[in-house]
Amino acid sequence: MIISHRFKFILYNNPLTGSSRIRNALAFMQDEVVQPYHLRTPRNPFYTYMPPAEVAQTMEMKGLPYDEYVSITCIRDPFTRLPALYERIKRTDRLWRFRQSAGLAPPHFVTWLNGTLPEGRGGGGAPHARWRRCGTWAIDNWTGGKVRHVIKAEDAQSEITRIFVESDLPPANLPAMDDITRVTPGVMTRAARKIISERYADDIAKFGYTPPCFKRAA
Q1: pLDDT of residue 123
Q2: pLDDT-based confidence at 186, cuts 50/70/90?
Q3: Distance between CA atoms of 4 and 104, rounded to whole angstroms?
Q4: What is the pTM of this model?
Q5: Considering only CA atoms, which of 20, 128, 132, 4 is closest in space to residue 74?
Q6: What is the largest CA-CA distance in the chain?
Q7: Which of 150, 126, 124 is nearest to 17 (CA)?
Q8: Other C-beta atoms within 10 Å of 156: how many?
């Protein structure tokens, strides 16, 4: 997350939407301390993957005019975001890695998906693993009505450039997001497509995402 009091700008790192690359490009704007969740303190309360509603509340408590800040967050196609989150958990979760080292398969994508929520504990995990918890949140649950601009990660380069021009913010060398549409092979079954289509119906309709197609059997 980037919080710039000098430019009155906030970039929210919505997990698994490519926001980290954008954050790196905009690091020159950062002038507020943002630390990992477990390192936050009363003096430095802002942490990575902090939900916007919590940021707004914290800034108001500190006497900062949150509504005057230009705020941006990304949304990503849930049909690519959720498999990407699942693959990251497979690589990092100690229990899952132990099972794999013992020759046992990790939970199937659909099994894992059924155990997640679009809010609250989200994708589970330890309290400090905010990327995992918030990684399955629907966009309205993530923003809490506290973000001025929600843009598609797939269009982030052009959209952020447009917002910066309109808001008189400094030019930035933003990264291309061409690979954000890459689909993780093998996990997107018809059952998974159905769960995602129903659970994230509002996100899909509002941002024009399309469920993946499956070829008919001959």
Answers
A1: 96
A2: confident
A3: 46
A4: 0.91
A5: 20
A6: 65
A7: 150
A8: 24
